[in-house]
Amino acid sequence: MIMLAFVFTLSASSQVKGDWYVGTGDVANVSWTDWAISPSVGYGVTDNLMVGLNVSQEVDEDMVFDVHARYFFKEDYFAYVGVEDFDFDMTQIGVGKMFTVHKVVYIDPKIVYDFNAQTTNLTLGFGLRF
Question: What is the model's pLDDT at position 125?
Answer without folding.
Answer: 87
